[in-house]
Design goal:
Layout (H helix, E strand, L loop, with lengths): L1 H9 L4 E5 L5 E6 H8 L2 H5 L9 H9 L26 H6 L1
Antiparallel strand pairs: 1-2
């Protein structure tokens, strides 16, 4: 889980593509649930409070995610992700 949060932050990504053991895409995990897990509720309710927390203290919040995995945030029902061929047109992609 912590590695997912680091990747999201380091690359300014909106989410992650989650793959299975074979490297096949399973789902897309938006960054919001990952951040929600590590950011205290009171900071989400009032973001100005986040300014009061220094970096060493912020690391303490990350410890709350230790032992958690990306799988903990995935929906219980896995919908098959939409797949198109490499030669698909923009219209085909939008339709899928």
């Amino acid at each position: 889980m912590l590695e997912a949060a680091r990747v999201l932050a380091a690359h300014n990504l909106p989410g992650l593509i989650v793959v299975d053991g074979r490297g096949c895409p399973v789902t897309v995990l938006p960054g919001t649930p990952v951040l929600r897990l590590v950011i205290p509720g009171y900071c989400r309710e009032d973001p100005t409070l986040a300014r009061m927390i220094d970096e060493p203290s912020a690391d303490v919040f990350l410890r709350g995610a230790e032992g958690r995995t990306v799988a903990d945030l995935l929906p219980k029902e896995h919908l098959k992700p939409p797949v198109v061929e490499p030669q698909a047109t923009v219209l085909e992609v939008a339709a899928v």
